[in-house]
Amino acid sequence: xxxxxxxxxxxxxxxxxxxxxxxxxxxxxxxxxxxxxxxxxxxxxxxxxxxxxxxxxxxxxxxxxxxxxxxxxxxxxxxxxxxxxxxxxxxxxxxxxxxxxxxxxxxxxxxxxxxxxxxxxxxxxxxxxxxxxxxxxxxxxxxxxxxxxxxxxxxxxxxxxxxxxxxxxxxxxxxxxxxxxxxxxxxxxxxxxxxxxxxxxxxxxxxxxxxxxxxxxxxxxxxxxxxxxxxxxxxxxxxxxxxxxxxxxxxxxxxxxxxxxxxxxxxxxxxxxxxxxxxxxxxxxxxxxxxxxxxxxxxxxxxxxxxxxxxxxxxxxxxxxxxxxxxxxxxxxxxxxxxxxxxxxxxxxxxxxxxxxxxxxxxxxxxxxxxxxxxxxxxxxxxxxx
Length: 386
Description:
- By secondary structure, this protein is of the alpha/beta class.
- The protein has two domains: 232 residues, Spore Coat Polysaccharide Biosynthesis Protein SpsA, Chain A; 113 residues, UDP N-Acetylglucosamine Acyltransferase, domain 1 (3 Solenoid).
- The protein has ten helices and 28 strands.
């Protein structure tokens, strides 16, 4: 999944690892992973085996019988135990690949070693009234996790902070020899979902050997960032909002920080170009991010994110719009509060984001009013004579 004009969401977890000094990385991929694998091959092929560096890709279909994919997050590691054994590592950090944040994992690893924990869980500090949507950690004053609750109706508060709770980030540190045995036991349990959050972590918590690591202690921030930034962009609304956030005058997440770069595949494209300079037909962009290869031809862009190779024709008006790579917007189209999929051609004069009923008729419109537009949706609209 694309993010931030030119990156992919997985680039954040991989960049955090690289910037933290981690040079031995494996990515477990599930079904329909071709675009993800291609991105890693093109953008992350700079590791050198002779320096004991690698980025391995571990597809589920190549480890066991084809009908058995990864059954859960823990199973994704279990199916590759023999490969991890060959790496000869002492510690292993388990990461989710679908979150936006900047974090120094070395600080979390140091805490894990210092406490002698069996598992250290990366945790967000969130308002207690919002914690019901997360797995919540109940800790004592030392940071030891005394209870783990999955999406509780009444989340426990943090010691000394009655209005805040600790929510799991899905980031875990283990000693490999310990995790290996735990995974073997879990694989033999027919009642298990083979998931870290549902099975592995609660079991360790019951043994009293789990500790929480607060994201605020290892979040990477520059002078422009005032608070730790972490986003799960798994919904249309969240994806739209996180991209729009980047267009703010002072965004909550600083992508311009050269000391902690977000590495990605840099496609060779020409610079963005703005053409036409007439009243009502002026190529312009205000409080927006415009990527390379874009041509803004007499269009007026406001508060929007334009990914690589987007083309806008005269009199078109994106406003709070996310246009994924290769999207083309024809003349006089108006796009408001929407996400336009990659390669989509928006017809001349089409208006999206101003009539909720019309949007919902043809496209996917969320309850908060964000419209997702794909080419099959537009094709269906065209076939019915609209």
